[in-house]
Amino acid sequence: MDIGALDETAFSLKQNSEFWLHKRLASVAKKVVGVDSSDLIPQEGVKTFENAVIYNFNIYDLSKTDKIADDVAVSDCDIVIAGELIEHLENPLEFFKLFTCKAELAGKTLAITTPNAQSLYNGLIGFFGMESTHKDHLAIFSYKTLNTLCIRSSAKDWEIIPTYSSFSEMKLSSKGIFKIFVCLFESFINLVEFISPLRSGGFMVKITL
To answer: What are the tens digits of pLDDT across the range 91-147?
Structure first.
């Protein structure tokens, strides 16, 4: 299950590239059920690939039902992925509890990715009075705040894994010498992130439910 599957603000740029998470999941999974509340998704859902579909569904409705569609439930899925989503939510702790408190999901895996509040890149551009945060982000998390979310949500088994920065949108929208510069800068940032993981671009929270 791919939550926030459309990636609405960057969809037009990423849809035909390797950087669209939904597309990459569909290339390796037996079946992908996407969930997104974007107005771009029709109420009946849309088939995106031969083995993938995205339904228009408010994930908070899972507090009332396990069903995404007539023949699809969260408990049918082996892995639930929320890529770059929780920073957009008004209540991230409630989102965690939607999964960690459901007995029928025992043994499943929840994987959440999110930007790092202490990332090296943001620290560097901060010297120039800038911050790399999307206009729709309501929160940004550090290693410790993610760990606290896991504790407060009553998760039993979790791991927080550093993830490297990827300036995918900049690479897709740039050409020539500027694109080369972006790639070189990304490589430099990734090297420092390897040396100091707490300065990584983001984190993946992997929870065994």
So the answer is: 999 999 999 999 899 999 999 999 999 999 888 988 989 888 888 899 999 999 999
Q: What is the pLDDT of residues 179-191, one digit of tens each?
A: 899 899 999 999 9
Tell me the fold of 2-208. Rossmann fold (3.40.50)
Bridge-based pairing state of the strands 52-56 and 157-163: unpaired
- What pTM, to 2 d.p., does this model score? 0.87
pLDDT (0 to 100) of residue 10? 65
Q: Are 54 and 36 in contact (CB under 8 A)?
A: yes
The full 3-state SS of the chain, as one line of letters, equals CEECCCCHHHHHHHCCCCCCHHHHHHCCCCCEEEEECCCCCCCCCEEEECCEEEEECCHHHHHCCCEEECCEEHHHCCEEEEECCHHHCCCHHHHHHHHHCCHHHCCCEEEEEEEECCCHHHHHHHCCCCCCCCCCCCCCECHHHHHHHHHHCCCCEEEEEEECCCCHHHHHHCCHHHHHHHHHHHHHHHHHHHHCHHHCCEEEEEEEC
